[in-house]
Each structure stands twice: as C-alpha cells, then as structure tokens.
Amino acid sequence: MLALMIDGVVSKKQDWIAMTTAVAAGSSKLHFRETVCRGQSCGQASWVSGVTFKGCPQKGLSGSSWVSKVLQIQRRNFRQSSINDNWKPLRAVSASYLKDGSVKYFDFAVIGSGVAGLRYALEVAKHGSVAVITKAEPHESNTNYAQGGVSAVLCPLDSVESHMRDTIIAGAYLCDEETVRVVCTEGPDRIRELIAMGASFDHGEDGNLHLAREGGHSHHRIVHAADMTGREIERALLEAVVNDPNIFMFEHHFAIDLLTSQDGSDTVCHGVDTLNTETQEVVRFIAKVILLASGGAGHIYPTTTNPLVATGDGIAMAHRAQAVISNMEFVQFHPTALADEGLPITPAKTRENAFLITEAVRGDGGILYNLSMERFMPLYDERAELAPRDVVARSIDDQLKKRNEKYVLLDISHKPKEKILSHFPNIAAECLKYGLDITRQPIPVVPAAHYMCGGVRAGLQGETNVRGLYVAGEVACTGLHGANRLASNSLLEALVFARRAVQPSIDHMSNSTLDLSASNWWAEPVVPTSLGSNIMNDVLSGTRKVRKELQSIMWKYVGIVRSTRRLKTAEQRIAELEAKWEQYLFQQGWEPTMVGLEACEMRNLFCCAKLVVSSALARHESRGLHYTIDFPHLVESKRLPTVIFPCSPMNGTWSSRQLHNQHIH
C-alpha cells in the first residue's frame, strides 16, 4: 500500500506548535512544500505536488483544529437496511454462524482491555451493550506494566500551564497545544474518578496524595501506587467491568481485521473479525461503534518492556482499513530496563519482555554510572538524570558504544532502605530473585523499546477519518506527546481520551442501525486446518525465525541513533524479508484469507515496522525520539507531524491489505 509522508513548513507561534498548510480554494488537494511517497510498495521516492484526500486541513488551522476537520465523523445513519424493530441489545447473542465460528452483535465493540478500553467501556455501557475483545487475559496490557504513575495537577503549587510547558518541551515542540491543554486540564478529574471507583494510590503523612516527580517534570505531580500503579488502576477498572451487566468480556480473541465498507468517498467501520485462539474459531463482531484501544508495537524490536501482546495489531489493522497514521518515527526507548547480563544470578531463560525499572527511581534521586562508576549524565545534559527519556537513552547508548559495554548502572542505594522498599517493592523483589539487593547495590540497566508516540491519528474526541472508528491509548496519535512522551503522561492521555470519545460514540450509536445481514457482507477468514499439522509446524517455525530477523533489523538499523543509509538498508531488508516470508507461506498452501495467531501477528509487525521506517526517512531533522546523524539538528521549518494518508488498498503485500478489502454486499 502506498503511503504519503508529509513534512513541510510551519511558523512558530508563541513557542507552541501550529500547523498550517496551503490548500487550493474549493479543492481537496493538499499542496506541501515537501511531500514524499515512500511506501509499502514504492521502490523509490516519488515527488508529487499534492494528494487528494477528502476533508483535508484548511489553511491557517491549528493542529487539533485541522485534525478534527480532517477526521470529523458525520452523524448520520449507515446506508444499510434497518434492523427489525423488535431487536434489542442482547448479552453476547449468537445471531447466526459463520463456517468457522459465530457472529455477535453489539452496540459497542472495544478492542483492548487496558485503561483506555475499560474506562470507555464503563461509560458507554450506560447506553448499550458492550463487547470488550482482548487478545489474552484481560489484565495483560501495557497498563498492567506501567510502574511510575499518572501525572496530573493536584498540588496548589503546580499549574496546568506548568504541566503543559513540561509536556511540550519534552515533546520537542511538536505537541498539539490544544490537545495538551485539554489533557492537562481534564486530567485531575480523571484521577478523582478513578479514586471514586476504588483505585488506591499512595498518600503522604499529611493524608494527602503522595505526588512523585519524574524526568522532565518541573513539579511533583505523579500519582502512584508504589511502583505498580498500572496494576492498581487495571484492578479497579476490571472489578467495575466484571460487575457491569452490560459489558461482555471476550478473552483470547485476537483481532484480525476491521470490517469496512465505502459510503461514497467515506470509509465506514462495521465491526471486526477475531480468532478465538483457544478454540481456533473465527468470531465476527458487528457493532455500531468500534473503539480501538489495542496498545502499541514494542515487539517490532527484540528488547522491549511491552508484554507479548504488543505486536502493533491495532495500528496495522487501522492502516489497512484506510485510517490516517501519524508520527510513527517517534519510538520511545525507555533508558532503564533491567539488564539481565549484569545480574549476580543470570535468569535461567530469556525474558519475553524486558523488566522495566521505572523513571521514578531517577526521580527519587537514582544516579547513573558507567561500569567504572563514573557518573556520566551531567556530561550530556544539565538536567542530568532528570533529563527527558530520549536524552537519557541516547546518553546511555553513547556510553555503551564508546566503552564497548553492555549495560550501565542505576544506583539508588544511597537513599534510606525503608524509603527504597516502600517506593519500589516490586523492583526490589524482582532484583532480589537474582541475587541483587537494590538497597545496597546498583541496578544494571539498558535501554529497551517502550512506547509508540505515533499511531492512528485522532481528533480531540478520539475520532478517526474512518466513520464509526474511535481510538484511545497508545494505539492513538492524539498530538499530546509530539516527538517524545513526557513520563507518566500515557495513562493520563488514555483516561482523558477514553472519556472524551464517549459522547460522540453514543451520538453515533444512537443515529446508527445494525443490519443482521451485515455479517454476510465480507468473505470469511479461514482457519488453516486443511494444511495439516506438519505443514503448520513448519509455518510456525519459519514465522518465528522471520520475526526474530525483523526485530534484529529494526534494532540494528532503526534504533536509538539512526542514519539515512541505515534506514534505507532497513527498508530494503524488510521488504526482502517480507516477500520471502509471504512466498514461503503461499508455497506451503497458505491462502490470503487464512488466519493464525503467529502469522497474523507477523503481518502486523511487518506493517508497523515499515510505517516506522517510512516515517523516519521522511523526517530530515533530529527531533525528540528521532535522532539521525545525517540531520543532527532541529529544523524549525520541519516542525510538522509526519502523516501517512490512506491510499489504494488493492496494492501491496499481505501485511498491507485487508483479508477482504471489498465487502460483497
């Protein structure tokens, strides 16, 4: 699938990001100074003067304003047959059956069970039936692994303006000012709602919430539950979801592809096909509204803090469904993941995901040393260990390369033992398993892929350019993070946008109808039982090898420090690897409509990896998380988001197109 990468000129406006584009009067043609097609099936860059896209930004609009215009959802009925007047939302009713499974009808379908998906589900459940579709167990999400906390202005000495300023500085001035203001303003209320729902956060001796400080923050504003904040939020939300009679949880249902149709020039989302990975049955969900809250794509890299489920499924599905994608070059590498090689007792087996050492350790006074016990962060930044993550990660990367070492040391042992154990009990317990006492010894750490700042482009209410499809959480690119995420802003963003997506979703649901014949509009995905166990074992084995090879390419060529030569090498090698893998699959008898967990994850990993590389090649400057030795400086004229507009779904590889991109109604 072709991808159009936009990078152009923007004027500075009171140090805030403002995005302006030139649009011909009465035309939907965009004219950018620099528009490069560098895509999924493009061999070389193709320079063009514009791109046709319905509802494009109008001249002079600020960032979130033009996004809202571009992504505005028209509140009108689907052009479908009306449903039987006697139909009412039912609890997980199987209305009809596909060959490989069942069809289920809901008012709302939520893909993902992290903080964004669950918070949204609890609100929309007051207005209709809700399916929460989750890839593994409900708690297995990035939310559950979020240690540090949630940032919010809850101290009288703090201010929304200060939180905004910290966010925008960390985001290298690529943040959307309106989005930042909305999130920082509404954040405190979202925290209070969690507390009212039963989430328990740490309090100080004065009885008030204990507010921590992390890198990039000018004030103490991090609400936390020791070093397991995400787990506590997830616990409270899941408990509320379980007790809600209108919410139905579908565990071990892997989302394969969104079900879309064309209504004139609009793309409309009607549901999602899933694979029940326990029964190997395909289950089709038809819904009036879909919220995509499926998390990030950390596993495009070999070392990541993300759980195994984070394979970019939502971003890839949305891209195949013609959604606008933005800022994929900004991959945050957490500077301090536990380096197993530096532990007194090496773990017996390789971890599925890296163990995170929270930002709060540095916020609490942790100091970084190289293996000669030389403190190095003051050499790189006056903020030392409290510099934003991209600065710290690059500094560690530089130390490791210069000294040819495999990890650095993070030391918090100079703090009182009781304080360390009360603030970081989970980290202390994990390290102690391997013979390391963090109250007396430094922690070996190394950078690891952590958070995607880019994703599916969202307006201020979580809307996308696909009618009926909303996004929240890490899968979304709202404009909050810009070129780098400020610590502990991710859970905040998920909470705020999950809540903001509720009212437009209810409005859309109220003005929509479900057609019981809709399940027959698309071809059926097929579980490849006909191939036999021997062939399937070969396919699985081959796919796992390809996955590791893709991850290796991304780490080597698209890591913390980049270059044009390395990015182009990655682009070429990924294309060759993908073509080789697809050829192998189809030679084994695999059909384009066949689905299996590891094969479908692989196609999503390929899709996301290509989006990251294409976006990185399009940005000719170093900003935030994207650092390239060929363009090592910030360039004011390049201070624009990178945008990938949808193009023809008929072209491209298996990873780049829907299994059924034309509905058969």
Automatic annotation (TrEMBL):
<dbReference type="GO" id="GO:0034628">
    <property type="term" value="P:'de novo' NAD+ biosynthetic process from L-aspartate"/>
</dbReference>
<dbReference type="InterPro" id="IPR003953">
    <property type="entry name" value="FAD-dep_OxRdtase_2_FAD-bd"/>
</dbReference>
<keyword id="KW-0175">Coiled coil</keyword>
<dbReference type="InterPro" id="IPR005288">
    <property type="entry name" value="NadB"/>
</dbReference>
<dbReference type="InterPro" id="IPR027477">
    <property type="entry name" value="Succ_DH/fumarate_Rdtase_cat_sf"/>
</dbReference>
<feature type="domain" description="FAD-dependent oxidoreductase 2 FAD-binding">
    <location>
        <begin position="107"/>
        <end position="491"/>
    </location>
</feature>
<comment type="pathway">
    <text>Cofactor biosynthesis; NAD(+) biosynthesis; iminoaspartate from L-aspartate (oxidase route): step 1/1.</text>
</comment>
<feature type="coiled-coil region">
    <location>
        <begin position="560"/>
        <end position="587"/>
    </location>
</feature>
<dbReference type="GO" id="GO:0008734">
    <property type="term" value="F:L-aspartate oxidase activity"/>
</dbReference>
<comment type="similarity">
    <text>Belongs to the FAD-dependent oxidoreductase 2 family. NadB subfamily.</text>
</comment>
<keyword id="KW-0662">Pyridine nucleotide biosynthesis</keyword>
<keyword id="KW-0560">Oxidoreductase</keyword>
<dbReference type="Pfam" id="PF02910">
    <property type="entry name" value="Succ_DH_flav_C"/>
</dbReference>
<dbReference type="InterPro" id="IPR036188">
    <property type="entry name" value="FAD/NAD-bd_sf"/>
</dbReference>
<dbReference type="Pfam" id="PF00890">
    <property type="entry name" value="FAD_binding_2"/>
</dbReference>
<dbReference type="GO" id="GO:0009507">
    <property type="term" value="C:chloroplast"/>
</dbReference>
<keyword id="KW-0274">FAD</keyword>
<feature type="active site" description="Proton acceptor">
    <location>
        <position position="389"/>
    </location>
</feature>
<keyword id="KW-0285">Flavoprotein</keyword>
<comment type="function">
    <text>Catalyzes the oxidation of L-aspartate to iminoaspartate.</text>
</comment>
<protein>
    <recommendedName>
        <fullName>L-aspartate oxidase</fullName>
        <ecNumber>1.4.3.16</ecNumber>
    </recommendedName>
</protein>
<feature type="domain" description="Fumarate reductase/succinate dehydrogenase flavoprotein-like C-terminal">
    <location>
        <begin position="547"/>
        <end position="633"/>
    </location>
</feature>
<dbReference type="InterPro" id="IPR015939">
    <property type="entry name" value="Fum_Rdtase/Succ_DH_flav-like_C"/>
</dbReference>
<dbReference type="InterPro" id="IPR037099">
    <property type="entry name" value="Fum_R/Succ_DH_flav-like_C_sf"/>
</dbReference>
